[in-house]
Design goal:
Elements lengths: L12 H5 L2 H24 L7 E6 L12 H21 L3 E8 L5 H4 L4 H6 L8 H12 L10 E4 L3 H5 L2
Parallel strand pairs: 1-2, 2-3
Helix pairs in contact: 2-3
Length: about 160
């Protein structure tokens, strides 16, 4: 039996230009490396009771933004990995992620339309220390009852800034 179908309409500037190699690079860096780290620790029982992993996701994992589909998908996959791994590795190990918004780094200098993006962050641009403080909390005993969570550290970007 022969199947046939017709695509009536599809449009994407960014996706049309992506190569499999580019997609794999983003997934390797953002997702697969974290999976392999968790796997290595679980297989070797390298994680002591009370161990904690914190992965860096992105506020973009929760948003739809043009030109960000693969990056956002890779970061959303991290959040899903965190939720599942938190259950799989409990109670010995906690697994969480941090979803930063725009942070003042060298990457910000080359960000197109950065003024527009900055305006979408009600509390302004974050600093590396903001992410470090969140990570320090999640890695500490103070967060002993926190696992499977993605902590938004985005200056209000996701909840109120996107225009």
């Amino acid at each position: 039996m022969k199947e046939s179908w017709k695509l009536n309409y599809a449009y994407s500037n960014y996706i049309r230009t992506l190569t499999t190699a580019q997609i794999n690079t983003v997934m390797n860096v953002n997702l697969y490396s974290g999976i392999m780290l968790l796997k290595a620790c679980a297989n070797k029982k390298a994680s002591n009771e009370g161990s904690s992993f914190v992965f860096i996701s992105s506020a973009n994992a929760s948003l739809g933004a043009p030109g960000n589909s693969i990056y956002s998908a890779s970061k959303a996959a991290i959040d899903a990995m965190v939720r599942c791994s938190a259950v799989e590795l409990s109670p010995r190990v906690r697994v969480n992620s941090i979803a930063p918004g725009l942070v003042e780094t060298s990457l910000l200098v080359s960000t197109p339309n950065k003024e527009d993006i900055i305006e979408q962050h009600p509390l302004g641009v974050g600093h590396p220390e903001d992410i470090a403080y969140a990570a320090a909390y999640l890695l500490s005993d103070s967060a002993r009852w926190v696992t499977g969570t993605t902590m938004m550290v985005d200056g209000g970007f996701v909840v109120g800034g996107v225009k």
